[in-house]
Amino acid sequence: MTTDNNNASAPLRYSSFTHDPAGGNPAGVVLDAAALDDAAMLAIAAEVGYSETAFVTAADESARRFRVRYFSPLAEVAFCGHATVALAVALAERLGPGDLLLDTPAGEIPVATTVDAADGTARATLTSVPTHSRPATAEELDSALKALRWSREDLDPALPPHVAFGGVHHLVLPAGSRTRLADLDYDFDALTEVMHRHGWTTVHLFRRESPTLFHARDPFPVGGVVEDPATGAAAAAFGGYLRTLGLITAPTTLTIHQGEDMGRPSLLRIDVSPDTPHTRVTGQAVPIT
């Protein structure tokens, strides 16, 4: 792929779900990883040091179709939303805005990209794989709460804990108050063990402010990161969670504020419909220089 870098395999750096490089969730982007093996990609992700780096392992630019893999500093992940947004914006800056198709380990991810003519801001909207959600078991809930240092009384009794899927699995827990959500001090090793045992990528903690406005936090210790400032994959799964609960009765746009409590405010928009299992996740991304 032709880029403005002399070395297309050198990682680029973007922050997703923000217009400010000091906010959002940073992601690495490698536009030409065709010659890189798993060990090399993992090493680059570790060197970049962000929660995820996206690697383009094959490209058909004329068809705007790309094979993509995602690595955290510790392991490969089947799908990552904020790195997808970062990659899509990087591609739009080089190929022009339009539709992209990403072949990921989680499945095909269509992405629509636009660039604002006034200020050049790029935005991407990904469409998730089919989402689904189920109630968390008592063992799943109790082990997670213990590692989080939460109790059942800390949860919102109006919303049930679930395990939701939107490319990868997430434990979804409703905080009983905004104060409870803001006070996050968990046992890193214990939560890592619980998440590995159950196959969760993040724990999606959220507080409902209104039917269409939510605050969220996503511990990500299995990726070697205490917390994600913005988690597109969890937002996709969360859309499926709300649909499964019957809270989406018509096509609805929801806003998720994340990263506020760690000083990296992020804004995620999701579109959910009762008629489709797919969640559309929209956000901006900006280069980190």
From TrEMBL:
Q: Where is this region: Disordered?
A: 269-289
Family matches, as InterPro entries: Phenazine_PhzF-like
Q: Which residues, if any, are the signal sequence?
A: none
UniProt GO molecular function: isomerase activity
Cellular component, GO annotation: cytoplasm
Which species is the source of this protein?
Streptomyces capitiformicae
Q: Which family does it belong to?
A: Belongs to the PhzF family.
Q: Which Pfam families match?
A: PhzC-PhzF
Q: Which domain of life is it from?
A: Bacteria
Q: Keyword set for this entry?
A: Isomerase
Q: Which residues form the active site?
A: 52
- What is the name listed in the Swiss-Prot or TrEMBL entry for this protein? Oxidoreductase
